[in-house]
Design brief:
By secondary structure, the chain is of the alpha/beta class. The chain has 20 helices and 30 strands. Helix 6 links the parallel strand 6 and strand 7. Bound molecules: adenosine-5'-triphosphate and magnesium ion (MG). The site of magnesium ion has 3 residues, from loops. Keywords: Acetylation, ATP-binding, Ligase, Magnesium, Metal-binding, Nucleotide-binding.
């Protein structure tokens, strides 16, 4: 950003008080903010007591080598024991940990006692394969219970896992395996996707031609499809794991022992191996899951729809919920298989009470139509969450009304792979929510918005989101590259963590995320947020999804070009609609934000985690050759978009 701070254009006046019943019995009350701001470190030391430590830490934070943090460094614990065994020891062995719903409709429910046996067997199997503490293990699996078991088995023996999303190509897997120098790969024959078995093992076979450090491959049989087997290297999970003893005594590891490496999705630049460690990470994952979702482990059924390959799957499927003894749903497949009501059928079937999903999914459901969720009984729901991108106010309101029955609070949770856990979010029993705003740093977290010169902006102004104090689940470094850690996150503003996101503070001081700094548009000297223009477009009844970019323009520097997907109900799709949309944005945000061009398309380019890749749309808008499309979920989308557009203008 340059010239001036991010403009503050969008006005959103709707407010929603927390439901009285929920507020009365919420896990966390408003008093937590004051308690935590009084003595932040004492607050986190107290949260660390949610965990069972083998050796209780006496030191909370060592910041003497800032920005390299050490939390609870003299404590020791076993992360898997915390997520599994201790619940069994506390008498909750019969509680369901995982309701697994396979895409073809198969499934099973796994209790905490069964999970303990399964994780112990897998831990013994890893040891039998020669994996030990400190070794790296790559995990490339579909969304099946074995993915959770594999991660916990690694944690149990102190091996560091690196989960690679099952949709990534052999190239992407190979570079991640090489970077982490993994010794073992855990994969499957395939997983079910859109009604068909989708192979995984061939990508591993191809990747391993370039990964001589990998000694063994452990293969789960999920789909039963044919796979090539390399003698001496490959071994079936059901043969090796099932024959192991269900007894495995967990040993304690240091709080700062590396728990996992997770590569950021690569929306921007070469993937970075984000390193997370044990005690601080688990403390914040557990606390935030308890506070933000108001989890009541005895009665709630929780469902996070993320993939285990993303950080959301790590912190809010595996570590947070299991540390808290939650009962959760894990679903293998896509939301439209075999029909577009699959998610709502699952909510109804298991009585899901807490649902955590992404704006991209919500906008897709809006596009499919209100009548689909209306066919199912969603009355079990009580808290709804959103993560991954800014949620447009109109999508937020739709989610509240059509999924939440106008009674469930929505928690819009801002965080990153790097932060490890939720940082900015409403609390469901405390916050009067505002559609589109993540609002306030959680108790114990310090964040603000600054301008180019690192000055905190006043309420009502925009700039860069920064985190001003270290937090327990912060990344410890970029794997093998301390310098990149310093350069990427700590060099833009002295002593502050630079998140790379634009944000503004409203008149109450609440935070609104405005998209990535790299995507901000500069029009006639004004910095304009992609998020605000997209939200204005999604606020029009004909629009389901929108992506805007700034394209080079001779007069204004950049001109706003909008790509929109229309709702199923939109009848007019021609020039008149385009004019109407431009006028609508002008009325909502002011003339400066009016798109110069509006292009109606059927698809938008998205990463595999569902985020819009604006850089590719910028290529289209500027009539350039399309850049690297390897991280796209569907690389044919760009051809489709180009074919649909009026030829170069
Ligand atoms: P890469 O860093 O490789 O480009 P990524 O940033 O998409 O990938 P993640 O760590 O999964 O990978 O996503 C974090 C980013 O997602 C945040 O920096 C922010 O841009 C966006 N984000 C996540 N949650 C929210 C939210 N609730 N509101 C606004 N933006 C969000
Ligand atoms: Mg990022």
């Amino acid at each position: 950003m340059s010239n001036e701070s991010l403009a503050n254009l969008l006005r959103e006046e709707r407010r929603f008080a927390p439901p009285a019943g929920l507020a009365a019995s919420a896990n966390v009350s408003g008093a937590a903010y004051a308690a935590a701001s009084g003595d932040r470190l004492a607050f986190w030391a107290e949260q660390a007591r949610r965990l069972s430590w083998a050796v209780e830490p006496t030191e909370t934070l060592d910041w003497s080598r800032a920005p390299f943090a050490r939390w609870f460094a003299d404590g020791t614990l076993n992360v898997a024991y915390n997520c599994v065994d201790r619940h069994v020891e506390a008498g909750h062995g019969e509680r369901v940990a995982i309701h697994f719903e396979g895409e073809p409709g198969d499934g099973r429910s796994i209790t905490y006692a069964e999970l303990k046996d399964e994780v112990s067997r897998a831990a013994n199997a890893l040891l039998a394969l020669g994996v030990g503490k400190g070794d790296r293990v790559a995990v490339y699996l579909p969304m099946i219970p074995e993915a959770v078991v594999a991660m916990l088995a690694c944690a149990r023996i102190g091996a560091t896992h690196s989960v690679v999303f099952g949709g990534f190509s052999a190239d992407a897997v190979a570079s991640r395996i090489q970077d982490a120098d993994a010794k073992l790969v855990i994969t499957a024959d395939g997983g079910w996707r859109r009604g068909k078995p989708s192979a995984l093992k061939p990508a591993i076979d191809e990747a391993l031609e370039r990964c001589p450090g990998v000694e063994r491959v452990l293969v789960v049989r999920r789909t039963g499809q044919d796979v090539a087997f390399t003698e001496g290297r490959d071994v079936w999970w059901h043969e090796l794991v099932e024959q192991q003893s269900a007894e495995h005594a967990p040993v304690a590891h240091e709080a700062e022992h590396p728990l996992f490496i997770l590569y950021t999705s690569g929306t921007t630049g070469k993937p970075k191996g984000i390193l997370h460690t044990s005690g601080g990470y688990l403390t914040q994952a557990a606390y935030t899951h308890h506070a933000v979702f108001d989890l009541k482990p005895e009665t709630d059924v929780y469902w996070c729809t993320a993939d285990i390959g993303w950080v959301t799957g790590h912190s809010y499927i595996v570590y947070g919920p299991l540390a808290n003894g939650a009962t959760q749903v894990i679903y293998e497949g896509t939301p439209d298989t075999p029909h577009q009501g699959r998610f709502w059928e699952i909510v109804q079937k298991y009585g899901v009470s807490i649902l955590y999903t992404a704006p991209t999914a919500i906008r897709t459901f809006m596009k499919w139509g209100d009548d689909i969720p209306a066919k199912f009984d969603l009355s079990s729901l009580r808290v709804l969450g959103s993560v991954g991108e800014p949620i447009n106010p109109e999508a937020w309101v739709w989610y509240r009304e059509h999924i939440g029955g106008s009674r469930c609070p929505i928690v819009d949770t801002w965080w990153q792979t790097e932060t490890g856990a939720i940082m900015i979010s409403p609390l469901p029993g405390v916050t009067e929510t505002k559609p589109g705003s993540a609002q306030r740093p959680l108790p114990g977290i310090a964040a603000t918005v600054v301008d180019d010169e690192a000055r905190e902006v006043p309420n009502g102004a925009g700039g860069y989101l920064v985190l001003t104090e270290p937090w327990p689940s912060m990344l410890r470094t970029v794997w093998g590259d301390d310098q990149r850690y310093l350069d990427t996150y700590w060099s833009r503003f002295e002593g502050r963590y630079f998140a790379g996101d634009g944000a503004k503070k409203d008149e109450d001081g609440d935070i609104w995320l405005l998209g990535r700094v790299d995507d901000v548009m500069l029009v006639s000297g004004h910095n304009i947020s992609t998020t605000e223009v997209e939200s204005a477009l999604v606020g029009h009844p004909a629009v389901a999804e929108a992506a805007v970019v700034g394209a080079a323009d001779a007069t204004t520097g950049q001109a706003i070009v909008a790509f929109v997907i229309l709702r199923g109900t939109a009848t007019d799709r021609g020039e008149a609609l385009v004019e109407d949309l431009r006028a609508h944005v002008g009325r909502t945000l002011g003339p400066i934000a009016k798109p110069k061009r509006v292009l109606v398309v059927n698809e938008l380019p998205k990463t595999r985690s569902g985020k819009i890749m604006r850089r590719l749309l910028r290529d289209v808008a500027e009539n350039r050759e399309i850049g690297d499309v390897t991280t796209l979920a569907d690389s044919s989308v760009m051809n489709l978009i180009q074919a649909q557009l009026p030829s170069a203008s």
